[in-house]
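We modelled the chain as a single entity of 322 amino acids. Its sequence is:
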Amino acid sequence: MAAEELDALLGGKGWPVPAAGDWDPGASEPARLRGNVCYVVLAVLLNEKDEVLVMQEAKAECYGSWYLPAGRMEPRETVLEAVRREVQEETGLQCRPLTLLAVEERGPSWIRFVFLARPTGGTLKSLQQADTESLQALWWDRETPALPLRSRDILPLMDLALQYRAAPRHPPILPVELPCASVCQRFLLVFTGGNNSLWVLLGTTGGPHLPLATSSPSSSKPGKRLVAALQQLLQRCVARPEVAVRLQGLLGLQHLGKDPGQSDGICFNIVATVGGDGSQQQELAPPALQEPGFSWWEVEDAALKSEVLRRLHTASFLPVYS
């Protein structure tokens, strides 16, 4: 079963989320959109001249400044539906999301999904069409004119989009529509041995599976990031506290918020390496475990092993910014 789960995640298909995780970094509770969680979508659209689509803000607190099309998800929306809606409302254009570029998080209560998308129709919004969503939109070469930006945090995202279009670091990744009640993280925690062996940490309760942690948005301490659960997993399982763990990125994420209050959660499928940089290891076997609910699984299937090692070698994962 673990091999099927790993194969599905590597193929970008996702995997069903069980009702309970292996542990809860905080007291687990269902995610409630516009209640205890806020999901934001943001889109970078580029034209053939490498100009980026920006819109002029209509909100009182940032009136007249410029930003990428972005906004909060609404109940019963999928992530992709939210992207398409925000782009059309704020710029007048329809779009097709091509891939996630990055995920930004401030803990389980605030998460932003950054997409690369391409225009598929519509008419660029003019000042004559100004409304409460935005004043107008334009294609910007990032030099002339010198636009007053709402925030400079969008500049690295524009660079990321241009870099991805020139040389994609990871295959196209779009959210998988599978329901999830809580904000949770599924870990592909990998140890690579000096003899080219590959080991994966599994949870064993209820059958072998990749470990799953659930997080509570409302009980999270200020500044507590989702990625902290990765270190907690290592501290819980590994007998040697000095063993290092390194976050590599995401294989993807899962969401299907069609039942408000019951399926507003997100499952992040996270890849990390233990014991070094994930490329070379002096030790032949992974570190000993102290937690009976977990075990190491040596991956012997040649195709699975080859794909995991290839992805690690090329850093072919979606970045997470905390």
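As a brief sanity check on the tokenised model: The CA atoms of residues 13 and 235 lie 30 Å apart. The two ends are 32 Å apart (CA to CA).
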